[in-house]
Amino acid sequence: MTLHAKPGAEPGADVGQTGSGQMADLFRVHDWASTPLGARGSWQPVLRITIDLMLASRHPMCVLWGAERIFLYNDGYAEILGARHPNALGMRTEEVWPELWGELAPLIDRTFQGESFAFRDQPFTMTRNGFAEQVWYDFAYSPVRDECGAVVGLLNVTSDCTARVTAQRERDVAMERLRAGEERLTALVEASSDSLYSMSPDWQEMRTFQGRGFIADTDAPSVRWMDAYLFPEDQDEVRGVIAAAVARTEPFELEHRVRLADGSAGWIFSRAIPVRDAEGRVVEWFGMAADVTARRHAVEQLRKSEAFLRNVLAASNDCIKVLDLDAKLVFMSEGGQRVMEVSDFNAIDGCPWPSFWEGEGNLAAKEAIAAARAGIASGFQGYANTMKGNRRYWDVQVSPIPGAGGKPERILSISRDITDLKAAEEARAVLAQELAHRMKNSLAMVQAIVTQTLRQAKSMEEARTAVSQRLSALGRAQDILTRSNFTEADIHDVVATAIAPHRVAEERIAWSGPRLILTSQQALGLSLATHELATNAAKYGALSNETGRVVMCWRVEQGAFVFDWVETGGPPVVPPETRGFGSKLIERIVASYFDGQGRLDFDPPGIRFRLTGLIGGTVGEA
Amino acid sequence: MGQSFHPVTVAVLVVEDDALLRAEAVDLCIEAGFTTYEARNADQAIRILERHSEIRVLFTDIEMEGSMDGLRLAHAVRERWSPVAILVTSGRRTVTKADLPENGLFFAKPYAPDDIVKTLNGIAAQITR
Q: Do B110 and A444 touch (CB under 8 A)?
């Protein structure tokens, strides 16, 4: 482009008048005559126009003119020059920028050859203020041509972009740092198995959830997250803790159940912190959740097995105790406290266990402890009182509880209350002894009956019959006693049983009387007496013919027992010449059992027998 | 039986609460030639002993009603009538030497009659020698 001067205008006359800046003044007063440019009046129009253009602009500009590259500049450029302003005006560029000259000269030369250059963010180290400073400039070199098209000058439009470049550099560094930080965070997240999540400030919306495989991911914000991750019955609890955390803006922390990726239930330990903006407002909650399902299950398993053991211990009626090696009580099962009638375990906690035992049990307990300490299990039985003082008999097992090293660490003692068993055993022993005694007593009676019979028998045949009949009568009486535990018998049963073998005809033998209880000896005695009387009646008396009768009747008269045997209708009675064992039995022995007397009358119409005495039993109701 | 002692000088006291057994024991002693007394309990026995100094043998059962059982009676007799020989019988208990007074003898029920007779004869022989 060719610039034309205004017609009529004097070249150089208006230089410095178009601008009101400092540089315009300097241009006016400068001694241009001493420079290669010559006096202002001699300046070519192109120079004047260029200078006017430059001075009018607020943009930093400089012009390099002529072969000497005379340095001209405006107010904007003065700032760039620093301390070199204002001396730089009209100087050779080489002198103005000696430190840059080597770098700039080629470009300047090429511009004078007609090229244009534009540079951005060019770094320069300047010493314009007496110290080195790093600056950046944008600049554009344009050739300025005269009317003939020859390049006579260079216009440099420039701007200091140091601030921008610096800011950009700082931003780049910050960005780099941020990126590195993010990479580290990403790496951390990758390395960790924990889930990450972010929530809206009020937790209504879940923004993201990285489930790390065990929980399903949430990629897009969702307000349905609670239904997705929590079982309905757990939601209220979680909601409550969230509400508290949000209300106080304090970290959220909760171990709770969640729905795992596979739909099953799992447990997480979740912790979230509020993220604030510059004004301190919560913009997000950022949280991590660790999968604690396995631990939770392990704990649950442990709790179940503990509950199981506790229930087993509580259910057992055995008294299960743990003692330390000094035999001091450290534990007693619930069931054990029940059977030991312990109302407060603290009262016996730490008590020496052997002192619970009396007598031999105390010694046995100490021995069992010594054995357990040596690693040997043992047992004993003994008496110990419950805490309420009830004496019980216990079967006790004492065994060592080995520690990690296999050595006895504690002692287990299990006691079972076998008082009832012991009592039954003792009762059985007593019964066995009683039975043996009764047997021996019976044998003694048999021996007496046999010996007595033999002593008075006229022949072996008679003796054999008499002995077997008498023993048979004794045996039948024993049957009645066996039914009543050997201690007593009803007189009706005794009479009926004794007479049964002799009842030739129902109507010929009759008996009547109240129901009375006889002692065992009275029962045996009356049986034998009845037998003897019946045997005699069958041989010689009322039962020896076809018509005789026997009547037995008994009563209690003013406390005295009276028993009568009356025979009628038999052959005339002839008193015997000698009294045999039968008579002795009837009159003396049986009477003795009743603490009374027996009298046998040989009345001619029929034998009569009367027994009077006391009965050991009580009068029956009938 | 040819006794070598005077029947009156050696008498036996049978103490037994069962009339049948007592009758048999008494017959046994009488048959052996001894004057025989009988009692159904310890109290009766003491009264008889007080009246009959010729009693030199006490033959007693243990289990009896009354103020004493046979063992206590045996000890009482040993103390009061020390020369009296003591024979004790029982179907219930096994009696050891320690339970008996010195030189006391025990016969388990049912006893063999011959053993009793031999023992009585032995005692009588010692007394009358």
A: yes
